[in-house]
Amino acid sequence: MECATVREESCCAGPSRAPAKIDTKPQEAKTPQAELMSQWADTIKKVIFIVGGAVIVFAAACNSLTWHLQSFWGASGDFWNRQWMKVYHLFGGNLFMLEVVGTQMVTFVFYWLFNAFFLFVDITGKPAFILKYKIQDDQNTPVPWPKLRKALQTVLFNQFFVNIPFAVFLYVMMQLRGCNISADLPTFKWVLVELGVFLIFEEIGFYYFHRLLHHPRMYKHFHKKHHEWTAPIGVTAIYAHPLEHVLANMLPPVIGPLLMGSHVAVLWVWFLIVEASAIVAHCGYHLPLLPSPEAHDFHHLKFTNCYGTLGILDRLHGTDNLFRESKNYPRHILLLGLVPLSQTFPDDPKQKRKDLEGKKAD
Ligand SMILES: [Zn+2]
Ligand SMILES: [Zn+2]
Question: Residue ranges of the Fatty acid hydroxylase domain (predicted)?
Fold first, then answer.
């Protein structure tokens, strides 16, 4: 699964922002050393911004939710502990059931609930106003049924025949690591620290496994299937060969929790964050207030750029060069208004004509 990202400019971006001007001044060529330094500086900035930003947003959302629950429903300070106790007792305190069955139930239900909205729009084309946020506006509107049926079959296969054995493997690994699965939750501050660590290992694991899958010897056997969708839709987040599903989607998110010896409840929260961001990254719509899916959508379109989840390692390795020159790059921000970014940063008409001619020639 891939996480959608929010770029640094997002804090100042909005519908009123004027389209980017094209700089016509001749640029001084950078030396390779200067280019490398600039890549490192950008990478460090991205790590601070993305990891710090994600932790702050998560903390603010949770604090605000807890405050509302306390204010309106009279919940006491240990609200989350009491909720967890209910779940814990629902599974009879059986740790295998909690880790294997519980994790599967939570992730399965969330995947289909979140995708239900995008599937409805992709199949019916309604509500029509959502279509103006489509990134590749001429693709999959509506999505062809045979292609969709094949995707649904593969996704269900992965959820039942890959996820469940993997959950058993994870249970054994968590037992060996001595992960915390008690009735008591860790402190909220510690959860934030762990989420920051998970995010870094997800970026490292996903980037390098994904690049490995693009090696010519691996690509045609294992990764080509996922790239059948050059304009992905939400449900194709885990449309993949089983080996790819394990390497790219299942392993990177569990590296952090295994290293940290995390509590199973934190694991559930983390898996839902990973699932949500993977679905958004593939959904094909750049919607207001959701992280930008432009980078991963570009990866599906062009194949050789934007391998990572956060864009940090792509910057470091220079595998975002085409993306940074593309029309999608200025749009790779958090949309804070209702005007689609394809209107704020319109296509270059000459380039659009070239693209159309290229498509006809194919
Ligand atoms: Zn993908
Ligand atoms: Zn790929």
Answer: 197-319
In angstroms, what is the span from residue 310 Cα to ligand 2's centroid? 15
- How far is it, in rounded angstroms, from Cα 115 to Cα 52? 28
Separation of CA 225 and ligand 1 centre (Å):
10
Read off the pTM: 0.81
Nearest ligand to the CA atom of 277: 1
The closest ligand to the CA of 229 turns out to be: 1
pLDDT average per 10 residues of sequence, the chain (362 residues):
44 35 49 73 72 71 64 60 88 87 96 96 92 90 92 97 96 89 81 93 97 96 96 97 97 96 93 96 95 96 94 94 93 92 82 59 51
Q: Which two tokens stand for residue 165?
A: 């054995």
